[in-house]
From TrEMBL, chain A:
EC number annotated for this UniProt entry: 4.2.1.33
Assigned keywords, A-Z: 4Fe-4S, Amino-acid biosynthesis, Branched-chain amino acid biosynthesis, Iron, Iron-sulfur, Leucine biosynthesis, Lyase, Metal-binding
Complex formation: Heterodimer of LeuC and LeuD.
Cofactor: record remark: Binds 1 [4Fe-4S] cluster per subunit.
Domain Aconitase/3-isopropylmalate dehydratase large subunit alpha/beta/alpha: 7-457
Co-factor(s): [4Fe-4S] cluster
Xref: CDD domains: IPMI
A single MF term (Gene Ontology): metal ion binding
EC main group: lyase
The keyword Iron is assigned to this record: yes
Entry protein name: 3-isopropylmalate dehydratase large subunit
InterPro entries named among the record's database cross-references: 3-IsopropMal_deHydase_lsu, Acnase/IPM_dHydase_lsu_aba_1/3, Acoase/IPM_deHydtase_lsu_aba, Aconitase_4Fe-4S_BS, Aconitase_4Fe-4S_dom, IPM_dehydratase_rel_enz, IPMI_cat
Automatic annotation (TrEMBL), chain B:
InterPro entries: 3-IsopropMal_deHydase_ssu, Aconitase/3IPM_dehydase_swvl, AconitaseA/IPMdHydase_ssu_swvl, IPMI_Swivel, LeuD
Broad EC category: lyase
Domain Aconitase A/isopropylmalate dehydratase small subunit swivel: 8-118
Domain of life: Bacteria
Role noted for this protein: Catalyzes the isomerization between 2-isopropylmalate and 3-isopropylmalate, via the formation of 2-isopropylmaleate.
Name this protein carries in UniProt: 3-isopropylmalate dehydratase
E.C. number(s) listed in UniProt: 4.2.1.33
Length: 470, 198
């Protein structure tokens, strides 16, 4: 039997198996940001350790950066303090930083790929659970806590349990208006928010092969929402073409040599898996979440589940969700009025996302009373959008066009919901309080569905605005 | 060089039950409390938005007088799902939690707990229900978590528990603060750094 990518790449990076039974895994690329790294730097300083290979770590700022006025010092003193800490820590340890005024700045999971830092066959870690995004390139990319950031800085390795591998085989051709976001929301709703605990997810099959790199990133990004710390797609020509010419990608002969390695680490045709799950997306509709975790999602044309149709554990969480959201079991999701629309995040803040949202918005206006925010995932995404005239489309419709950052995905900057506002959001988490108001409510969906909600003032089926057949 | 050599083989303490499945890290510590450069003082932020509302303190267990001395947190399924923020176990630890017992845990949360020397102990669904009921009826009763025998003793109950075996070994051998152990492989690390194709 052949081997899968996960096991090949893991074995290549395993320094040893520790006495505890955990593997000591070498991390080839370490990405850091301002929120989860300062304590790690303090810890290595206290222990009189140094950063072992500063050239394997890159830093950027994304979580706390304001998206309106980015001039320094930031108005928020705490945010400014975190910026200063990251600047001091990177300078004193010789680590590259893409600071707020650097053209490469953006959400860490957007810039790694777009700069060509993220490549197949790597192990990648970042103090952020959405690090799984980078798996789209055929790397093992995992979110870590601050103690592990300390370990990576000091040793370039972590002590970690090796997960099992589940292949998620996706077939069928999606209909118009059905996106990568809908595919991953469907997978999470089927397998559950804890279904992936102890697993790495390999997304495979013709429907995954057919996706662009940006779409694959959307899918891998939300692996963690299904409990899987790692999600990946095998590298192929789509991957290689995306990487060719990127700033940090190898060039010329070195690129060709890298491609040989990248092809070698892909899963063999007859690779073994610990589990396989299959999904046909031919009849998939756009998905929206109705609850307080990303697994609580329905197809746009379905009604909300009845508590009696759910098992005991799910029914408890659903009851809590209905209480928080103010929704009725069994009711329709279509027509739910929204207050705020957020388009952005590491899940859906790339250029293809903004294009798709702009296509829906073009020639339309934001519905009365709706606040709309478009936040590009990086400065490069913003610049590309400007070249294509996208900001004008959003601004003339009544949206606010902002600077790059995580923004209202987790509301660590001034972009927050107020009170019980309901937000149609292209982000990744609908947890209670996630978007900055403890009573705030989030419905996750694709950027085109969020755009459709923005111009309609309520949850609608984007396919009806697209002029195509449903 | 590290907090190491602290072997964690058993723990005794009062329990505080926090009921509910899928309690995510945003609920354990809302993101706005992460605008800090140290973990100090995060205990007060634990479960903040469910401990406080516009009327002041709620009846969340972390607010109740009877649980103020508790050091063992009892939870249900998929506790700690969501973000990788170590601020979550840090906040619990700084509130006073030294061990977590529940039905199941999110992976990154569980790894973060191990890094801090907090045992993450799994028990069956029926057992956690009984433990939670008992902790509510008799809040000042001590639980004994024996990591060597993997048993929990709580009043009349003696319950079989489970742990990730590597995490359990790391706690029992005092190698949960991993930096020192990892640094022991310095030469192998350097060799891998040189030999990787990138």
């Amino acid at each position: 039997m052949g081997r899968n990518l996960f096991n090949k790449v893991w074995d290549l990076h395993r320094v040893k198996t520790l006495d505890s039974g955990l593997d000591q895994l070498f991390i080839g690329l370490h990405l850091i940001h301002e929120v989860t790294s300062p304590q790690a730097f303090s810890m290595i300083k206290e222990r009189r350790l140094k950063v072992r290979y500063p050239e394997r770590t890159y830093a950027t700022v994304d979580h706390i950066v304001p998206t309106l006025n980015q001039s320094r010092p930031f108005e928020d003193e705490l945010a400014e303090k975190m910026m200063l800490a990251l600047e001091e820590n990177t300078v004193s340890n010789g680590i590259s930083l893409f600071d707020a005024d650097n053209e490469n700045q953006g959400i860490v999971h957007i810039i790694g790929p777009e700069l060509g830092l993220t490549r197949p066959g790597m192990t990648i870690a970042c103090g952020d659970s959405h690090t799984s995004t980078h798996g789209a390139f055929g790397s093992i990319a995992l979110g870590v806590g601050t103690s592990q950031i300390r370990d990576i800085l000091a040793t370039q390795t972590i002590a970690v349990s090796k997960p099992k591998v589940r292949r998620i085989q996706v077939t069928g051709k999606p209909g118009p208006g059905v996106t990568a976001k809908d595919i991953i929301l469907k997978i999470i709703s089927e397998l559950g928010v804890n279904g992936g605990i102890g697993y790495a997810y390999e997304y495979a099959g013709p429907a995954i092969r057919a996706l662009s790199m940006e779409e694959r990133m959307t899918i891998c990004n939300m692996s963690i929402e299904g409990g899987a710390r790692v999600g990946y797609v095998n590298p192929d020509e789509t991957t290689f073409e995306y990487l060719r010419g990127r700033r940090f990608a190898p060039e010329g002969e070195a690129f060709d040599k890298a491609v040989e390695y990248w092809k070698r680490i892909a899963s063999d045709e007859d690779a073994e898996y610990d589990d396989v799950y299959s999904l046909d997306i031919s009849s998939l509709s756009p998905m929206v979440t109705w609850g307080i975790n990303p697994g609580q999602a329905v197809s746009i044309d379905d009604n909300l589940p009845r508590l009696t149709d759910l098992d005991e554990g799910s029914a408890d969480v659903a009851a809590k969700a209905y209480e928080h959201m103010g929704f009725q079991e069994g009711s329709q999701i279509l027509g739910m009025p929204v207050d705020v629309v957020f388009i952005g995040s590491c899940t859906n803040g790339r250029i293809s996302d903004l294009r798709a949202a702009a296509a829906v918005v073009e020639g339309r206006k934001l519905a009365e009373g709706v606040r709309g925010l478009v936040v590009p995932g990086s400065k490069h995404v913003a610049m590309q959008a400007e070249r294509e005239g996208l900001p004008g489309v959003f601004i003339s419709a009544g949206f606010e066009w902002r600077n790059a950052g995580c923004s209202m995905c987790l509301a660590m900057n001034p972009d927050k919901l107020k009170g019980r506002e309901l937000c149609a959001s292209s982000s990744n988490r609908n947890f209670i309080g996630r978007q900055g108001s403890p009573e705030g409510r989030t419905m996750l969906m694709s950027p085109q569905m969020a755009a459709a909600a923005a111009v309609s003032g309520k949850i609608v089926d984007v396919r009806e605005l697209m002029g195509g057949e449903k | 060089m590290s907090a190491n050599d602290i072997k964690i083989t058993n723990l005794t303490g009062q329990c505080v039950p926090v009921r509910g499945n899928d309690i995510d890290t945003d609920r354990i510590i809302p993101a706005r409390f992460m605008k800090v450069v140290s973990f100090e003082g995060l205990g007060e932020a634990a479960f903040y938005d469910i401990r406080y509302n516009s009327n002041g303190k709620t009846d969340h267990p972390f607010n109740l007088d009877v649980y103020q001395d508790a050091s063992i947190l009892l939870v249900n399924k998929n506790f700690g799902c969501g973000s990788s923020r170590e601020h979550a176990p840090q906040a619990l630890m700084r509130w006073g939690i030294k061990a977590v017992v529940g039905e199941s845990f999110a992976e990154i949360f569980s790894g973060n707990c191990t890094s801090l020397g907090i045992p993450v102990v799994e028990v069956d669904s029926a057992d956690i229900g009984r433990l939670m009921n008992a902790a509510e009826e008799t809040p000042n009763m001590n639980m004994i978590i024996d990591i060597e025998s993997m048993t929990l003793n709580f009043g009349d109950f003696e319950i079989e528990a489970r742990m990730n075996s590597a995490a359990r070994n790391a706690l029992m051998t005092g190698s949960w603060d991993s930096t020192g152990v990892l640094l022991d492989s310095g030469e192998e690390i350097d060799a891998m750094h040189e030999s990787l194709p990138y």
